[in-house]
Write a structure and sequence with these properties.
With 145 residues, the chain is mainly alpha-helical. 92% of the residues lie in helices and 0% in strands. The longest helix has 63 residues. It is rod-shaped, with a radius of gyration of 31 Å. It starts with a helix and ends with a helix.
Length: 145
C-alpha cells in the first residue's frame, strides 16, 4: 500500500512541477511584456514632449511672418490657419490622444504587474507544495524499509 501512496504523491509532484514550470515561463513572458510596454510608454512621453518643442518652433516661425500679414493674403491665411491649429483644435486633439494613450499604457502596465505578482505567488506556492510532497514521499519511503 505504501508504494501506491508514493506513486500518487509522485504524480502530484509532477503535476506541481509542471504548474511551476508553466508559471515560470508565464512570469518571464509577462516581465518581458512589462519592460517593452514601459519602454514604449517612455517613448510616447518623450514624443509628447517633442511635440511641444515642435509647436513652440512653429509658433516662433509664425510670429516671424507677422510683419507680412497685412500685405500678403496668403501669409495672413497661413498665420490664421496655423494659429487656429496650434491654439485650438489641433493641439487639444493631439493632447487628448497622447493623454488617452499614456493612460491606456499605464492601465496595461498595472494589469501586467498584478499578473506578475500573482505568478510570483503561484511559484512560491507550487515550490512549497513540491517541498511538502518531497517530505511526504521520503516519509512514506522510510515506512517501507
Amino acid at each position: 500500500m505504501g508504494s501506491v501512496s508514493i506513486s500518487i504523491l509522485e504524480s502530484k509532484k509532477e503535476d506541481y512541477q509542471s504548474k511551476l514550470e508553466s508559471a515560470r515561463k508565464s512570469l518571464q513572458s509577462n516581465e518581458s511584456e512589462y519592460e517593452s510596454l514601459l519602454e514604449f510608454k517612455g517613448k510616447v512621453q518623450s514624443s509628447h514632449g517633442s511635440l511641444y518643442a515642435v509647436t513652440a518652433r512653429v509658433s516662433s516661425l509664425v510670429l516671424s511672418t507677422y510683419q507680412y500679414r497685412d500685405t500678403n493674403g496668403c501669409v495672413k491665411n497661413f498665420i490664421e490657419t496655423i494659429t487656429n491649429f496650434l491654439e485650438k483644435i489641433g493641439t487639444k486633439i493631439v493632447n487628448i490622444a497622447y493623454s488617452a494613450l499614456i493612460e491606456m499604457i499605464s492601465s496595461m502596465l498595472k494589469s501586467i504587474y498584478k499578473k506578475i505578482e500573482e505568478l510570483n505567488d503561484d511559484i512560491i506556492r507550487h515550490s512549497d507544495d513540491i517541498e511538502d510532497l518531497d517530505k511526504e514521499i521520503a516519509y512514506q519511503q522510510s515506512l517501507e524499509v
